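Protocol step 4 of 6: structure prediction from sequence.
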Amino acid sequence: MATLRKLVSDTRAMHKLLSTDSLITDRAIASEIKNNTFLLVKRETNLRKLWATDTLFTTIPCLELCEVSISECCDFVDDCTIARTKTKLPRISEGNYQYVIQGVYSINAMSGKGTKIKETTVNRFINLLKLPIIKNQSYYWISNGYLYVSNPQLKAIRLVAFFEEDIPNEIMYPECGCGDNYTIENLCKNPLDKEFSLPGYLEKQVLDLTSQKLISTYFKLKTDITDNGVDGQAPNTSNNS
């Protein structure tokens, strides 16, 4: 995968105006690349594409859970307890039908001893609670930025999802040591230098959309200012009679 800095550079190279105008910062271009990526990825996942790819999803290796009352996330009053992530999640992309989550797993699922947790909504889970059946299946849902799991005994889960926000280091690199080894370089890396989750076949479309949007926005603005007789590069300039 390309880094965000490489995608910014490729965007500037598409048009001379983008490569020479200092008004358009790398941060502004990166923001527009992200917006267009989210737009196209949502389109594709709504069409049931990309769900099996390994170039889109990011794995948070360990999210600690705490036991809470079910009434914390809904109006249902019951003695039932559930588990909730201790910290709020970075924003996860959301399609027409569901969050763009590839999977939620008990922490040892990859060793063959854990389980994949089934997605539901809190209302569906409450309906299950009202049924006189034994509930062996674990479920998860997201509410108010937290992830909830129906099994209050779980202490941690692994989350694989497509995030629209940068994942804080304290969440991505937990002190428990779960997941890959990481270095000081990982902790200090500029977000522009990190690999950006953009499937290769969508890259050209994203860069085209980004270039078009930047040119239409920034250079239309400067043209409008010039038409009024004011230098767009010189703030507080007024016409002299």
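Step 5 (inspection) to follow. The helical segments are 4-13, 16-20, 26-46, 122-129, 169-172, 184-188, 203-227.
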